[in-house]
């Protein structure tokens, strides 16, 4: 008989690129999780903005089970009904005319960057290959995406990085004006920087990027891997800005916990991804697409989207009450259910100290960089779970403040 796995097995058998918390959750329902010992937790982490409908939502479970009995995988030598339906739904609900399906955010961004380069190469020539992105941005862990991302720690130590990539300052249009020219093929930006600290782009910034891209015939790429799939209270965050990109990437919440990614684009740009230019064995997998289709249909409803905005107000209100008592936060910000609380100067860099204490108190949260406590719970988290989870979080914060 084999023994039950423990956290020590992680250190023994897994490559050491992560440092997971001590507890091992074994069951989830809605916004609650239970660990191996039956201890219960309220989940404000949502699998890093992935479990958009919480754990084991019946709509997703039923979609998965239905499809599991029919067809799982074909490869791209054939197409399949769920993938076609998902692509149709995504185009009908967004600016896009065409969709490329894959299995993660990094892959969606890799596809977006390759598409932008190839589009510029085909339409303008080799010189137009420069990509502009932003300091502190995060676009995934493939070598291209860490190089475009604005956190050099993720791209250093792996040999020469791909060339032709420059970084401007987020929310500073002048810094983009200095870099953009007719050699620029794409500007890639997160409408709200997620890993960088839950920093929303200003309206002026995104509108200005659109204008600059139009002036130089560069493609505007919105990375909505974290902000998409209803996270900010709209199906995609760009909708609230009224600024449409040429390419948009989506993952995380779009699969509700099943690995799915998508790159959306227009009829003007899509032809550059001609037969043979790019691909993935699993992209558009029938099982994944069936779950994503159910997730998109369920999320893109007024009930879920308006609910996310209402819940943001509730979380902010409670965090402000906690802050009046403990003075740990400098600012509470975000949109929908992507919430960031930046630490006050006395607690600079200590956001991650809250996480293990919070787990001990029965609530799971996240950080976004060293200085921001992040919450990305289910879009349909019951309001009583929010209130109870924040009570638990307050106990953890009180312990951090008192050094217990
Ligand atoms: C904005 C953004 N882009 C891309 C990614 C990478 O997605 P994945 O981890 O699914 O490859 C992330 C993940 O945190 C993200 O937040």
Automatic annotation (TrEMBL):
<feature type="binding site">
    <location>
        <position position="280"/>
    </location>
    <ligand>
        <name>N(2)-acetyl-L-ornithine</name>
    </ligand>
</feature>
<protein>
    <recommendedName>
        <fullName>Acetylornithine aminotransferase</fullName>
        <ecNumber>2.6.1.11</ecNumber>
    </recommendedName>
</protein>
<comment type="similarity">
    <text>Belongs to the class-III pyridoxal-phosphate-dependent aminotransferase family. ArgD subfamily.</text>
</comment>
<keyword id="KW-0032">Aminotransferase</keyword>
<dbReference type="GO" id="GO:0005737">
    <property type="term" value="C:cytoplasm"/>
</dbReference>
<dbReference type="InterPro" id="IPR017652">
    <property type="entry name" value="Ac/SucOrn_transaminase_bac"/>
</dbReference>
<dbReference type="GO" id="GO:0042802">
    <property type="term" value="F:identical protein binding"/>
</dbReference>
<dbReference type="InterPro" id="IPR015424">
    <property type="entry name" value="PyrdxlP-dep_Trfase"/>
</dbReference>
<dbReference type="GO" id="GO:0030170">
    <property type="term" value="F:pyridoxal phosphate binding"/>
</dbReference>
<dbReference type="InterPro" id="IPR050103">
    <property type="entry name" value="Class-III_PLP-dep_AT"/>
</dbReference>
<dbReference type="InterPro" id="IPR049704">
    <property type="entry name" value="Aminotrans_3_PPA_site"/>
</dbReference>
<dbReference type="GO" id="GO:0003992">
    <property type="term" value="F:N2-acetyl-L-ornithine:2-oxoglutarate 5-aminotransferase activity"/>
</dbReference>
<feature type="binding site">
    <location>
        <position position="138"/>
    </location>
    <ligand>
        <name>pyridoxal 5'-phosphate</name>
    </ligand>
</feature>
<keyword id="KW-0055">Arginine biosynthesis</keyword>
<comment type="pathway">
    <text>Amino-acid biosynthesis; L-arginine biosynthesis; N(2)-acetyl-L-ornithine from L-glutamate: step 4/4.</text>
</comment>
<keyword id="KW-0963">Cytoplasm</keyword>
<dbReference type="InterPro" id="IPR015422">
    <property type="entry name" value="PyrdxlP-dep_Trfase_small"/>
</dbReference>
<dbReference type="Pfam" id="PF00202">
    <property type="entry name" value="Aminotran_3"/>
</dbReference>
<feature type="binding site">
    <location>
        <begin position="223"/>
        <end position="226"/>
    </location>
    <ligand>
        <name>pyridoxal 5'-phosphate</name>
    </ligand>
</feature>
<feature type="binding site">
    <location>
        <position position="141"/>
    </location>
    <ligand>
        <name>N(2)-acetyl-L-ornithine</name>
    </ligand>
</feature>
<dbReference type="InterPro" id="IPR015421">
    <property type="entry name" value="PyrdxlP-dep_Trfase_major"/>
</dbReference>
<keyword id="KW-0028">Amino-acid biosynthesis</keyword>
<comment type="subunit">
    <text>Homodimer.</text>
</comment>
<dbReference type="GO" id="GO:0006526">
    <property type="term" value="P:L-arginine biosynthetic process"/>
</dbReference>
<dbReference type="InterPro" id="IPR005814">
    <property type="entry name" value="Aminotrans_3"/>
</dbReference>
<keyword id="KW-0808">Transferase</keyword>
<feature type="binding site">
    <location>
        <position position="281"/>
    </location>
    <ligand>
        <name>pyridoxal 5'-phosphate</name>
    </ligand>
</feature>
<dbReference type="InterPro" id="IPR004636">
    <property type="entry name" value="AcOrn/SuccOrn_fam"/>
</dbReference>
<keyword id="KW-0663">Pyridoxal phosphate</keyword>
<feature type="modified residue" description="N6-(pyridoxal phosphate)lysine">
    <location>
        <position position="252"/>
    </location>
</feature>
């Amino acid at each position: 008989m084999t023994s039950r796995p423990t956290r020590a097995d992680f250190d023994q058998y897994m490559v050491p690129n992560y440092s997971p918390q001590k507890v091992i959750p074994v069951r989830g329902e809605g916004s609650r999780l239970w660990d191996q010992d039956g201890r219960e937790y309220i989940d404000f982490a949502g699998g890093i903005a992935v479990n958009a409908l919480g754990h084991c939502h019946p709509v997703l479970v039923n979609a998965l089970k239905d499809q599991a009995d029919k067809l799982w995988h074909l490869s791209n030598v054939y197409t399949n009904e769920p993938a076609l339906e998902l692509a149709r739904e995504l185009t009908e609900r967004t600016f896009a005319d065409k969709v490329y399906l894959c299995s993660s955010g990094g892959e969606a961004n890799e596809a977006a960057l390759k598409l932008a380069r190839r589009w510029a190469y085909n339409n303008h020539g080799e010189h137009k290959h420069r990509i502009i992105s932003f300091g502190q941005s995060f676009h995934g862990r493939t070598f291209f995406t860490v190089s475009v991302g604005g956190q050099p720690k993720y791209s250093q130590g792996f040999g020469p990085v791909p060339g032709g990539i420059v970084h401007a300052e987020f929310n500073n249009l002048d810094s983009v004006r200095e870099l953009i020219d007719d050699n620029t093929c794409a500007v890639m930006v997160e409408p709200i920087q997620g890993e960088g600290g839950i920093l929303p782009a200003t309206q002026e910034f995104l509108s200005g990027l659109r204008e600059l891209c139009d002036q130089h015939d560069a493609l505007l790429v919105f990375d909505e891997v974290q902000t998409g799939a209803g996270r900010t209270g709209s199906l995609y965050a760009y909708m609230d800005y009224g600024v449409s990109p040429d390419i948009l990437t989506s993952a995380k919440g779009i699969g509700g916990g099943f690995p799915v990614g998508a790159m959306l684009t227009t009829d003007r740009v899509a032809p550059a991804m001609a037969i043979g230019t790019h691909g993935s064995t699993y992209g558009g997998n029938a099982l994944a697409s069936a779950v994503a289709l159910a997730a998109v249909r369920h999320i893109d409803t007024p009930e879920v989207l308006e609910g996310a905005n209402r819940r943001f107000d509730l979380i902010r209100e409670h965090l402000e009450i906690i802050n009046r008592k403990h003075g740990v936060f400098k600012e509470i910000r975000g949109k929908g259910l992507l919430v960031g609380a930046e630490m006050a100067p006395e607690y600079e860099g200590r956001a991650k100290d809250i996480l293990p204490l919070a787990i001990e108190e029965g609530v799971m949260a996240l950080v976004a960089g060293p200085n921001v406590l992040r919450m990305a719970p289910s879009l349909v988290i019951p309001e009583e779970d929010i209130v109870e989870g924040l009570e638990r979080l307050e106990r953890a914060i009180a312990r951090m403040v008192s050094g217990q």
